[in-house]
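Why this split exists: single-chain examples teach little about how molecules sit against one another. For that reason, every record in the complexes split bundles all components of an assembly together and asks for one structure covering all of them. Below is a record exactly as it appears in the raw files.
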Amino acid sequence: MNQDTGAITPAAVTNRAIAAAFERVADLLEIDQANPFRVRAYRNAARTVAEQAGEVAAMLARGEDPSGLPGIGADLARKIVEMVSTGGLAYLEELEARVPAGLTRLMAVPGLGPKRVGLLHRELGVETPEDLQAAAAEGRIRALKGFGPKLEAQMAASLEELQALARRRPIAAVEPLVEDLLARLRAAAGVERAEAAGSFRRRRETLGDLDLLAAAAQGDAAVDTFCRTPGVARVLARGSTRASVVLADGFQVDLRVVAPESWGAALHYFTGSKEHSVAVRKLAQGLDLKVNEYGVFAGQGRVAGATEEEIYAAVGLPWVPPELRENRGEIAAARQGSLPGLIALEDIRGDLHAHTVASDGRQDLAEMAAAAQARGYAYLAITEHSAGLAVANGLDARRLARHFAAIDRLNAGFRGFRLLKGVEVEIRENGDLELPEAILADMDLVIGSIHQKFNLAEERQTERLIRAMDNPRLTVLGHPTGRLLNRRKGYAVNLPRVIAAAAERGCALELNAHPDRLDLDDVHCRMAREMGVPIAISTDAHHAAHLDFMRFGIGQARRGWLTPADVLNTRSWEELAPRLRRR
Ligand code: DGT
Ligand code: CA
Ligand code: CA
Ligand code: ZN
């Protein structure tokens, strides 16, 4: 510890640091079932040091002996001298090395002290919060001495809470809350407008917290309304123009209220990203301007502030869509007038991935078709699972043929709309598609997906996907990484290689818009665009209502710089059909 910091000046080691080190030694000793008297000695020493009026390090510098302090014997005095002169404590490092690191994270769980953590480790092999969760789920904890079913349930609940707190929220989980909060704010006295800013406005796939902004001459009514919103568990901070609250599920929401003449500047500032704002401020400095959340200033005079367009114009830029504000080249593109004309929800003409009751969907062909037509679509691809996915009631060749006959009958009755005949075929471990060529040849499109054998090594998984794309019948590679947001990392795969292989083969990649997936992500959508790989933005709907997931896909597509031309399902059926035939 601290080997590279050179000489430690005595003042650098505070009483608080010494006390914390002694507390830590005591915790680790207790986990390790050490003699209770030794544990107590370290805890007493920690308290003695913490309660000293003057710095113990300064005392040492004056040549005084710490063993004169209450509860500090010769051994502890030596350890204090060691800490003050080296900044570290060898004994503590030795203990840290002996006790598994995860055990101390466990002590953050309410009800768990070092003694219980030690017992859980020895009796059940629990080392991490995940182990603890599993042990609680299996009911193995209640049998331990000093525990019991009540404490076990309590611990499981607080563990879940702790982990939820540590997690970012998927954007889809926050969206309903945003609409509710904005409606309330807009109805509050004096509020002229209210919008969400921050990562929500930039449409990031997950949010750390939610940032809301309101314009009003007086902030009090908005702040009051905000803090009294049902579902607010705690008000963290509250002033006349700002407040931060925590909801019952631990999610934080911040509100700022600004004067209407500062609306644009504040919206820009609180939309971020921070990195984008820093880049804009640098541009402003070059023009002798100052940008902050109140406006753009030349000397004392305000030159812009009411709208975001004004802010950007003041630094010589066109307005930049929030989804691009990540300092990933958007400033340079804006200066050159080469910002992409981003895709919007209105550009979408159909959906290329949907299931019905024939496999694991919830509604039938007619219901899904009606829902697609209600959204103004020209086509909806029906892509059931293939038979190898038995858990999803996948279809074999015979059932597929019957399904396609039903689609033909429905299509005969539609005007300006059609169901496309497709499949979501399993990609086998060796990269083969699970259905024979003769059957695939009859379809409008073929999505190839991986739902099994997730744990192949990266090299093999990558080869598997590329081999699947070797088959010219494969039109779209479905959810290319297999990730589930906040639940499952994708399989190990070299995506740049997969994207390059798709480009060579003329295969499209899916941006699965299901809010749990968002797969491909923004960064790889952009990579695909740069390599000329078309993207299918698809909802993977298992219910008619899921067709509305499209907006989450659009958010990621925009973050990935995609334009309508980069996306397959912005085309009319006549334009799309030839693009679905690779050969
Ligand atoms: P999040 O909450 O982690 O999903 O991401 P953001 O971008 O919403 O970050 P947040 O909530 O910390 O702050 C909201 C916005 O406020 C951020 O995008 C830009 C602005 N902001 C926050 N802190 C700073 C800062 O230190 N400097 C500047 N220029 N802007 C900041
Ligand atoms: Ca935020
Ligand atoms: Ca925030
Ligand atoms: Zn699917």
